[in-house]
Write a structure and sequence with these properties.
Rossmann fold, Helicase, Ruva Protein, domain 3, OB fold (Dihydrolipoamide Acetyltransferase, E2P), binds adenosine-5'-triphosphate, 469 residues, alpha/beta, binds magnesium ion, 3 domains, 17 helices, globular
Length: 469
């Protein structure tokens, strides 16, 4: 196979984080990896954060590839939040993929294909390439417009010359129509320091030559001054870009093409393509042209996977280039999907055996209050102390998530009465408007006669019989 295409793939951003966790900017650890009480948006949950910090360190040192971590704990205890903290601490170079267990059933591809793609998204390849560039200070650009004749009027077809210099030499290059267009688009004028990539013809303006500082007034304050380069005008420069294996697969898959990366509809990828890419990447590694960067695959709600997926995970973890897998679940001892067996977290024992398990614990009242305060700041909501206390006690009795929901809604209610701060009355109002799970259940129990498919009633033979419909 010829060298796989890589040049077309530019930074395809990792999924933007869900706004529920937008306040989280890291794990909030100090240099010794000890969690601070409250830092980078995270509060308490110290044991789990400390463990996550160690995992993070191992990831950064490349020591934990092919290992997996399970974060277990009750709903709303910050499992997803901690995974987000890890993602934020990794930096842009390390791939981080987040999927939810149920997602792989809804895509238009097999479960294992969806998982394979998620795995390959989480493995980065840092590729070093030598690019030939032309770099120098523009001495002069000379463009001749063709006048055109009656038969072929001036079609904009132009020719010209550009003179570039370094401190050591000066060279004149002929310009084609395309180059002229790029130079004009970048508004390149004499005195600019520019780089032209020879392969793609891309023009980049680095700044204005220091030699032109006397003309500063005419240029305005945004002008960036740079030194005139030394040495040859034409030179080789090393460029490094990091892609993930899935991106390389997609670009090289004939039926897919580059645009599939943006539409997200990549469909299934042929196994041969993956094998070829693996072989090529291995070659590049041997030649010192590429390095593997193991990233992180986070599978939230992992209990939604079934037994086939679990056995896929077992095998994939043993692969040489596996990413680090972080799993999260709020399930206790429950049925493993696709079987009649029960197991802790709904995961098979042989998978559990390969995992490091971190537990999250319930929050204290103080911690709840701090999280709610951070969310208020994040949502730009001012709240009186009394209102915060009430909201916290609601959080204790219902759930953290429910209390978080009341922040935005109470702020809207406060705004309607033209107040700038949310007060106790606003919290009371939204508490009565929007019910939490407990009150909703109670309501349903009281009103069960009016509802269809009520389990209790069906059992008592009062409700509608599902089988007879
Ligand atoms: N320690 C924390 N510090 C700051 N914010 C937190 C903390 N724990 C949870 N949160 C926030 O509280 C909300 C609920 O937490 P999260 O979604 O992480 O819970 P979870 O354990 O993943 O729950 P589930 O089991 O239902 O998925 C989120 O908005 C999250 O960002
Ligand atoms: Mg979660």
């Amino acid at each position: 196979m010829a060298d796989p295409k890589i040049a077309e793939v530019k930074d395809v951003n990792r999924n933007e984080l869900v706004s529920a966790h937008s306040h989280i900017r890291g794990l909030g650890l100090d240099d010794a990896l000890e969690p601070r009480e409250t830092a980078q948006g995270l509060v308490g949950q110290k044991a789990a954060r400390r463990a996550a910090g160690i995992v993070l360190k191992m990831i950064k040192e490349g020591k934990i590839a092919g290992r997996a971590v399970l974060i277990g704990g009750q709903p709303g205890t910050g499992k997803t939040a901690i995974a987000m903290g890890i993602a934020k601490s990794l930096g842009d170079e390390t791939p981080f993929t987040m999927i939810s267990g149920s997602e792989i059933f809804s895509l238009e591809m097999s479960k294992t294909e969806a998982l394979t793609q998620a795995f390959r998204r989480s493995i980065g390849v840092r590729i070093k390439e030598e690019a030939e560039i032309i770099e120098g200070e523009v001495v002069e650009i000379d463009i001749e417009k063709s006048q055109g004749t009656f038969r072929s009027p001036a079609s904009g077809a132009k020719a010209g010359k550009i003179t570039l210099k370094t401190t050591d030499m000066e060279t004149v290059y002929e310009l084609g129509a395309k180059m002229i267009e790029s130079l004009q688009k970048e508004k390149i004028v004499a005195g600019d320091i520019i780089t032209i990539d020879k392969a793609s013809g891309r023009v980049t303006k680095l700044g204005t030559s220091f030699g032109r500082t006397s003309e500063y007034d005419a240029m305005g304050p945004q002008t960036r001054f740079v030194q005139c380069p030394e040495g040859e005008v034409q030179k080789k420069k090393e460029v490094v870009h990091t892609l993930n294996l899935h991106e390389i697969d997609v670009v090289n898959s004939r039926s897919q093409g580059f645009l599939a990366l943006f539409s997200g509809e990549t469909g299934e990828i042929k196994e041969e393509i993956r094998e070829q890419i693996n072989k090529k990447v291995a070659e590049w590694r041997e030649e010192g042209k590429a390095e593997i960067v193991p990233g992180v695959l986070f599978i939230d709600e992992v209990h939604m996977l079934d037994i086939e997926c679990f056995s896929f995970l077992n095998r994939a973890l043993e692969n040489e280039n596996a990413p680090i897998i972080i799993l999260a679940t709020n399930r206790g001892i429950t049925t493993i999907r696709g079987t009649n067996h029960k197991s802790p977290h709904g995961l098979p024992i042989d998978l559990l055996d390969r995992l490091i398990i971190i537990h999250t614990k319930e929050y204290t009242e103080r911690e709840l209050m701090q999280i709610l305060e951070i969310r208020c700041q994040e949502e730009d909501v001012e709240m009186t102390e009394e209102a915060k206390e009430l909201l916290t006690s609601i959080g204790v009795q219902t759930s953290l998530r429910y209390a978080i929901q009341l922040i935005t809604t109470s702020a809207l209610v406060a705004k309607r009465r033209k107040a700038t701060e949310v007060d106790v009355e606003d919290i009371r109002k939204v508490y009565s408007m929007f019910v939490d799970v407990k009150r909703s259940t109670q309501y349903l129990q009281e009103q069960q006669d009016l509802y269809l498919f009520s389990e209790q009633l069906a059992g008592q033979g009062k409700g509608m019989d599902l089988e007879s419909i």
